[in-house]
Amino acid sequence: MSEHKTLLYGVDDKPPVATSIALGFQYVLLNISGMMLTPIIIGNACGLSIEQIEYFIFASILVSALTTVIQVRRVGKIGSGYMMILGPSGAFIACSISAIQVGGLPLLGTMTILSAPLETIVAYLIRYVRKIFTPALGGTVIMLVAMLLIPLSFSMWSGESGDSLFCSPAYFFSGLTPVLIIFGSYLSDRKWVRLWSAIFGVAAGILVAYFFGITDFSQLGQYSYFALPRSGFPGLEFHLSWRHFPLFITFLMATLTSTIETFGDTVALQTVSERNFSKINYDRIQGGMYVDTVGSILGGAAGVTANTTYSTIMPVIQLTRVSARVIGYYAAAIMTVIAFLPKFAYFFLSIPSPVMGGMSVALTAILFSEGFKVAASAELSTENGIVIGAGMTMGLLASLGIFFPNLFPEQFRFLASDVITMGGLTALILNIIFVYKIRKTESVTLAADLAKLPDLKDKIDSFQDRMRVSEKQKFALQLACEEVFAFFCQQNPDRSDIHFRWKHFPDYILTEIATTGTMQQIDDIPDRDRLTKLSEEEMNKLGLLLLSKISSHIEHIQITGKHYIQFRI
Fold first, then answer.
1. Which of 491, 483, 563, 561 is nearest to 525 (CA)?
2. Coil, strand, or helix at residue 535?
3. CA 469 – CA 316 distance, rounded (Å)
4. pLDDT, tens digit, 9 for 90 and up, residues 107-156
């Protein structure tokens, strides 16, 4: 049985309030350090003052809380409607540092705003780029995120080389404790064990760290319970020139990387959030990408860095078996409170790093498995194998930091060591090449009129020799296309147009069909064992049973009201 069918609470369910609050706290626990560490890393690298870093953290958390609500709530077409947490994107660290060094926080905000619409453009055009943004690409990016997190997580577990306790037994056992508890929870049949395993793991890790004398919360006394940042809004930079153009390109590259990551996250999230997941809903993916743009614009307007979805949600849903979107509201409320409570916020940063590192290692392993499952859900063809393999290989080379950095212009040199950018763009470029490489094609557009059936037959007859279609293939192709056309005509008395397109591959003929007319799901094929009990509506689908017997890889998706169907002969 697949994991999504064993959910304790599905995306539309409402767990008890106490459970929802506790799980919301758990999501915040896992992500708040990333929300705070990104501003701290950028601030320290640029020499920002303590007051400026405080504002950076404050604004970043508030923007994260607001965009999380929009993502979960799904306002119109904006939002995925799934339990997702958003926060400052690590993909923007390098270019954000460059922007601050050139023009301070005002320039950072302006560049973030200007580059944000790129993701909306990609999302709006998803009906055209959906062949490129495939599960193979999405799964590869998720695995690349895991690859990026593994060394970072382990460095937190083992400590830095200058640390006196570097790779010591104290660090080893403090980090091993949450790893064993999280992995061990999969051996239990009791739902509460996996539900709270992450919190139990952190609590137990803190106790072990305390035993070794490495737990220290003494510095919390210097922070107030309630406070506003001492630095205010930094403003925006409006005096731009051509010298800022290379910097703008780096922001666009980071936005594209974030776009690919959000696509992969949303694909994976659908598979673990729905009780009866059947196919990818591209409208939800589109909505999730729109929220990224909103978050980035809000972040830029506040003078901080761009937002993106956090991949840590998938392993937690797998672990707890809870995908209820209502938990997102509680998580956002907790984040909002934390933004105004410095003492509470820095409590999370005071948790011993080996404990958080060990927990992150365990969750990264689960995240990698989710990426692998998404990638494997695509057809395991030679081309998809090359996309996945090349993406992972280039990501690994980037992680080593030795991929010919001197060959890159200085402003783009960070690309040589960016795991997600190098691996993700490699997979994306290969996908584009494989999808759009020159093939023999034929097409025809017909009105929904059964009198046009001879035209469809004549068109297929006309390209038989050119596409080297055998008589058996031609007959099957005609039969399959006629069944779809007749099914379409039944539902469109207004004679809406339907477009057929055929592509020749070495082993099969791919039929692609597009229409804006009415079209019930053709991959919802009646069960032949129930033929004597079918309703009148199901009787109208009997032709689809024939379609399923003479064709393969039948797929029907709907994006912003337009239907896309494909099958192979």
1. 483
2. coil
3. 49
4. 988 999 999 999 899 888 888 777 787 778 878 887 887 887 788 788 87
Q: How far is CA 567 from CA 90, 253, 439, 480, 544, in A?
A: 39, 35, 17, 9, 12
CA gap 547, 545 in Å, rounded: 5
Residue for token pair 């630095």 = 231
Which residues, including other chains, have CB under 8 Å from residue 312's CB and lie 6 or more apart?
Answer: 30, 31, 34, 85, 363, 367
pLDDT tens-place string over residues 277-331: 777 788 888 888 899 899 999 998 988 888 888 777 777 787 778 888 899 899 9
Structure tokens belonging to residue 94: 């390098």
Q: Across the chain, what does the average pLDDT equal?
A: 81
Number of other residues whose CB lies within 10 A of the CB of residue 198: 26
Amino acid at 39: P
Residue 5, pLDDT > 60, answer no
Closest by CA to 351, choosing from 201, 228, 223, is 201
The answer to whether 87 and 258 have CB atoms below 8 angstroms apart is no
> How many angstroms separate the CA atoms of 251 and 254, rounded?
5
What's the CA gap between 96 and 248, in Å, rounded?
11
Determine the residue type at 481.
Answer: C
Report pLDDT digits (tens) over 412-450.
666 777 787 788 888 888 888 887 776 778 888 888 888
Rounded to 5°, the CA angle 29-268-14 comes to 60
Amino acid at 78: I
- The reported pLDDT for the residue numbered 189 is 67
pTM confidence score: 0.73
Question: Counting beta carbons within 10 angstroms of the beta carbon of residue 261, is it exposed (0 to 12), middle (13 to 18) or buried (19 or more)?
Answer: buried
Q: Sheet holding 497-504: strands in order across? A: 441-447, 497-504, 509-515, 562-568, 552-559
